[in-house]
Amino acid sequence: MKKYFFLPFLFSVLHCTTLWTQDNKIECDGAVYLVTSNGENEPSQLLKIQVDGNGISNTTTVNADLGMSLNATGYSVLDKYIYGINFENNHLIQIDKEGNTIDLGLPPGLNPNLKYYAGDITPNGLQFVLIGRDPNTNFDIEIFYVRMITEDFSTGKLSIVSTIPTRVEDLSFDPLFGSCFGFDNNTKRLISINVFGAIFTSTFNALANVSSVGGLFFDRKGVLYGYGSTGGAENKLMKFDKFLGTITETSTGPISSFTDACTCAYQISFEKEVEPREVLPCGEITVTYRFNNTAGIPQGGIYFLEIFPPEFMIKEMVRGPSLDFLLSSVGSNIFEADLLTVLLGKDSIVLKIDVGDFEGEYENSAELYSFPEALGGDRLSDDPQTLIVDDPTAMQILENNAIFQDDELYFCEESTIYLYAPPADEYLWSTGSSAEFIEITESGFYWLEATSPCEILKDTIELIKVENNLTVNLGEDQTISQGESLLLSYETNASEIASELWTSSDTSLTCSNCPNPLVNPISEQSYNLLIEDEFGCSASDDILVSIDPERKIYVPNVFSPNGDGINDVFYIQGKGTAQINYLRVFNRWGTLVFENRNGFINEKANGWSGEFKSKSAGEEMYLWIAEIKFPDNQIELFSGDLLLMEY
Hints:
By secondary structure, this protein is mainly beta. 0% of the residues lie in helices and 50% in strands.
């Protein structure tokens, strides 16, 4: 009997950094770096922001004064730094995670007489793509490609081919498809750009409510965002539908007059799965290596290595690279391939392996070499069944008297338990069955003989029946306000819960198999919970939730849209998620200064910022009127006075 624990080894690779240490590099973690200033030629500050489904969740100042007006920023996966263009002299600037800057000079071949508002680094980190704008015509005329792997950052260029003159404000590469998007301030629409200098503007419709989008970036899910203005200062985070070119959501962020943004949204996952995880000696396993490349570009020149124990033998490569790239495969215990390409999206390598007369625990990771530094460099495979990152995948080649995980197992008096055998050629149970599993309803000792091509293993287990004393209590029936949510909970005497199942006709039940679902019923509803403990014993209870029809709406009578972040927006608030059919605001002469339709209460994006025709509406008294549809489909009309204060 042999037991092996294989520790992965990695080749030593030297990473040369001539400017800063490893500690100053910027991790590729999806964080957004926002550059803001009070104008094109004003000093910029560098902010780090987190963007989620609710907008900007966190803002950190990295450097309050970069000492220059910075624009056209991009992140390099090769060295993990941000690069940008000094707007005043067109010099290339390198930035570390502390906001320190190094002036790398004017790249040879970059036209010093143009202005560079839009730029991003390609997903492979090889080129910094910049769009040059003629300051005389104020239109874009050339695309420049700064070679980021040459010592002098030499630059090539192509003339722009476009059906309509453009003023592109920023660029960003899609991590899912590798395509390049931009925002054209001339036509007020998203555009797509190819590497040959062609700009396509006819795909998307113009966005009449957008004034500018100084920063454009993707998140790690491939969602496109823009940071700019819908009138006035640039303080709007916009979520785009990248297929239709429309804005789906907006939220508010730091105020600026001149912005740019970049992020590293790229990822590559590498998983190793073994099936089955338990097998008899001389049995067969299937090993699947899964790749998910959302790094914007196929990753080529990759070296792959997996060394199995000497007793193992690769029987078949079900799915994998061509023979031209294989160094070792079928008939060996080593799977080795060179110059692989990890394509965009999901891909896999699948092997069938005979484990031989190996017995005991086996765990190991496959190894990949030579990804860009920001994508992990040299990578180890991850076990998808654990929460630990990049941990080895474990399996068990069973031994005699170790087929069952436990010597004894308890089960509830009212339940049935099933005993399963690992994959084998033949089975013989103490009940006389030759099936892969048996059904047990009584206490007692049970044994199994499992036959593999090279060995017969036997094991015994005792099954013990327990009395069902399980209880569950959902508490007293509840009454909530119209539109209000309720978090359901329960009490039980169980020491361990194996499963929970909530059932109701209410479609607002947020989950059916969690301990505390959230509900938001529009009418009286009953909810049932069925729980099961570790022995298979079950219990259930019901709760009735009634609705108080009183409608609670709060509307302020004064607001001050002065940009201090306090009471800057007039919007309707209240409990629940009532729909605003329309909200209208009139001045004292009866002029409609604001209208919004089909929004929801408690959302600032559906309120009035105090502007009329892109200017402050002025400090005075206004009249508002709103029609609100409540979750039970009842519609009510509300109105009142509103004082706008500018201080």
